[in-house]
Amino acid sequence: MTTREDLAKWDAQDPLAPLRDLFDLPAGTIYLDGNSLGALPRATAARVQEVVTREWGAGLIGSWNSAGWIDLPHRVGDKIARLVGAGPGELVVADSTSVNVYKVLKAALAIAAADAPGRNVILSERTNFPTDLYVAQSVAREHGCELVLIEPDEDPADRLDDRVAVLMLTHVNYRTGRMWDMAGITAQAHERGIVTVWDLCHSAGAVPVDLTGAAADFAIGCGYKFLNGGPGSPAYVWVSPRHADRFAQPLSGWMGHAAPFAFTTDYEPAPGIARYVSGTPAVIGTAALECGVDTLLAAEPYGGMVALREKSLALTRLFADLVDERVSGFDIESPRDDEQRGSQVSLTRPEGAYAIVQALIARGVIGDFRAGQSGLPDILRFGVTPLYTRFVDVWDSVEHLRQVMESDEWRDERFSQRLAVT
Ligand SMILES: Cc1ncc(COP(=O)(O)O)c(C=O)c1O
């Protein structure tokens, strides 16, 4: 049986261990929520200070040119592209994930209407993140389409028929961490003339992604989770070069115009991905996002996403095994199969999930809780971030969980009071 001493040795031998120093982590805290909000990179505070005081304060409006603010969404987009198997000039930082879902769904429907006319179904999954479904509901209404949702135990491949215009999936599920086979599903969708939209919120920086290799069509994702961009960080959008120039996206703002500073009356989309920018970029947030993305690129000399993935799998496997061995009363909702698991372990229990997470947080072990929906159970989520999560952190977290359960500490009334953000 594995002991804490064994795990301390694993940490001592871990070639990725030095990357933890890139983060400013509070002492006495085990942070297992980088799948919700990534931790603060050490470089971010100084960089944001520089943007605010030197570039904005001293440089004023001239910094759009002299500090390169105008190119920032593309420069940071190119860096994110390296993490998701996209080429330079194919991915741009812009808006929020929700807004980008709207843009790409509309563009995907336009492509489907041109290439395979007469289809009226957007296919997605019931346990997709709600914002994706809410936006898809609006888009479906606007287009007179039907939004059809597969159940968690269904295979999307079984539902791909010639009524489906667009298949919109989240690559790694926010509740369970289950990961779809992007290349396989995209190929099956393409065989039936269906356009694909992939949400990479829980994938970019967490698992290797190869958008080009998968021949995917559209992808979107956020900056604040595994990319460590900070709260409210801007999101990103990728469009296959096969499609980028074919349609103007619907939020046709001036920053996606071919010549924004010509101030013409009529919209003319910029070539390529630049048209997916709508308004003025969020400079401070994008500068912070760049620091976050840089923490992942710093892993390149150590083997990059492949090495991070190997460690992530070892961490999540360990977490699940230790829960099996040392704690009773929980089911493990995340897939046991490495191929199908993202960078988190989700547990379920008939009662007390919220209170147990709160009791752990009071002990300095930060995971989170996601309410059950549509007959699905409440979930305790524990995300691992191989850049900074240590093997002993996994041991200590499970030990805290064991103690919280055995002492009934979680039943203390204060842990049941729901906060605004769970
Ligand atoms: C898969 C997925 N999509 C979208 C979002 C959120 O979208 P937004 O960044 O617009 O808040 C989340 C947030 O957790 C998510 O997990």
Automatic annotation (TrEMBL):
SUPFAM superfamilies per UniProt: PLP-dependent transferases
Q: Pfam families recorded for this chain?
A: KYNU_C
Similarity comment:
Belongs to the kynureninase family.
Which residues are modified to N6-(pyridoxal phosphate)lysine? 225
Question: What does the annotation say about its assembly with partners?
Answer: Homodimer.
At which positions is pyridoxal 5'-phosphate bound? 97-98, 129-132, 170, 199, 202, 224, 254, 280
This chain belongs to the protein called Kynureninase
